[in-house]
Amino acid sequence: MTFTITLPRLMTVGAGAVRELGATVRSLGSARPLVVTDPFMKEAGTVDAALASLRDAGLEAGLYAECVPDPTTDSLEAGLAAVREHGADLLVGFGGGSSIDTAKALGFLSRNPGPMRDYKAPKANTGPALPVVAVPTTAGTGSEATQFTIISDSETDEKMLCTGPSFLPVAAVVDYELTLSMPARLSADTGVDALTHAVEAYVSRRANPFSDGFALSAMAAIGANLREVYKDGSNRAAREAMMLAATQAGIAFSNSSVALVHGMSRPIGAQFHIAHGLANAMLFPAVTEFSVPGAESRYADCARALAVAGEEDDDAAAAQALVDELKALARDLAVPTPASRGISREDWDRAVPVMAQHALASGSPANNPVVPTAEEIEELYARIYG
Predict the structure, then answer these.
(1) Which of 106, 134, 309, 356 could form a disulfide with 377 if both were Cys (CB 3.0 to 4.6 A apart)?
(2) What angle do CA 220, 253, 40 make, to 5 degrees?
(3) 1: pLDDT confidence band, cut at 50, 70 and 90?
(4) CB of 41 closer than 8 Å to CB of 73
(5) Mean pLDDT score, 166-171
(6) Residue 350: CB partners within 8 Å, gap ≥ 6?
(7) Can you tell me the distance from the alpha carbon of 255 to that of 274, in angstroms, rounded to the nearest whole number?
(8) What span, in angstroms and rounded, lies between the C-alpha atoms of 385 and 63?
(9) Distance between CA atoms of residues 121 and 247, nearest Å
(10) Which secondary-structure segment (H or E) carries 238?
């Protein structure tokens, strides 16, 4: 068995790593980097440390601070204009997954003709792109280490998964201190996102020994720290553990794959503008319960990594303990249902057939231990409504 591994060329990890951003970018041969972020990061001053590091390194750094949550093909147009206007030779994606995904898409479209829908999965993209350095400010998406970007099609509302080495950052700067101000809800949602990455990477039909190690390590850290950062965001040790785990989980699924949870969560985000991590959290227990029969021993390993089952437990008991833990985690983190989020049953039911088709089209459900039919996906959507 052989498998291909892709990773960022450089990774700087630890407290204060953002202050080394300028040296990293300079070492990559850039002279005119453009920082790609969102308005909040600019207004809060969070991005200032990154800009200062770049300018202290003698670089002509520009700033594009108009990223939107769940970036769309329309939203990329202003970003592409900013890339051209600055004459950028490298992009720094600074922020959560949406900003990093935007930077990846801008880097790719700067060197390839649109539209973006021509590059969605199952196409694997290997063409040229402006280099991207990713600086995450949340502990969840793992986008700093993945060869994926998620962009919604403004014409169809499809949340498109675009894959391939073209979207892999050339470097990542992972500084947990950037997450210390994250509010509890965002800490919970991004943390569950990272846990979903780790579990799905491990049970995926494309799992391999390389991704397995990163996935299990991430699960152990998340199991020990997620509730703590939700309860006390100032806990530096827990924040550091979650940040490293999110990156490890990103490496895991980038070199394996995600599966049904992610396939189903993207359409929820597209249809109802629910944050990606929260949509994952809504789905995680029910989809895992559905999927366990296809990989009981692998799900049992996940339970043991999370320390909710021991070696003395047989696989069936351990896998059930995992399902029970995911349900308990949803309660402890106050994960809402679509109903409690204010989505009407009528609107939900109307969207379900479209969401099921978009989930299947993404390709992720085909990696699941139990490959679902469209009808089974619709049933799962109905089950989680609340």
Answers:
(1) 356
(2) 85
(3) confident
(4) no
(5) 98
(6) none
(7) 27
(8) 41
(9) 23
(10) helix 236-254
pLDDT tens-digit series, residues 87-121: 999 999 999 999 999 999 999 999 999 899 999 98
Instruction: Report the first-to-last Cα separation within the chain, whole angstroms.
Output: 43
Instruction: Give me 218's structure tokens.
Output: 């991430």
CB 112 within 8 A of CB 128: yes
Mean pLDDT of the chain: 96
DSSP letter string over 125-180? P-S----EEEEESSSS--GGG-SEEEEE-TTT--EEEEESGGGS-SEEEE-GGGGT
Pairing of strands 148-152, 159-163: antiparallel
Give 127: exposed, middle or buried? Use CB within 10 Å, 0-12, 13-18, 19+.
exposed
pLDDT digits (tens, 9 = 90+) for 13-53: 999 999 999 999 999 999 999 999 999 999 999 999 999 99
Q: Percent of the chain scored above 70 by pLDDT?
A: 100
pLDDT digit string (tens) for 307-366?
A: 999 999 999 999 999 999 999 999 999 999 999 999 999 999 999 999 999 999 989 999
DSSP assigned state of 2: -
Question: Using an 8 Å Cβ cutoff, are 271 and 349 in contact?
Answer: no
41 token code pair: 């990061």
pTM equals: 0.95
- In this structure, are residues 36 and 93 in contact, taking their beta carbons and an 8 Å threshold? yes
Paired tokens of 46: 């969070």
Nearest to 117 by CA among 163, 162, 69: 162
Residue 33 host element (H or E): strand 33-36
d(CA 85, CA 316): 59
Q: Which of 196, 200, 123 is nearest to 166 (CA)?
A: 123
Q: Which two tokens stand for residue 275?
A: 């944050």
User: Which DSSP category does 339 fall into?
Assistant: T
Chain position carrying tokens 């609107």: 347
Q: Which residues pair with 151 in a beta bridge?
A: 160
- How far lies 324's CA from each of 12, 285, 306, 318, in Å? 37, 8, 12, 10
Question: Residues for the chain: how many in total?
Answer: 386
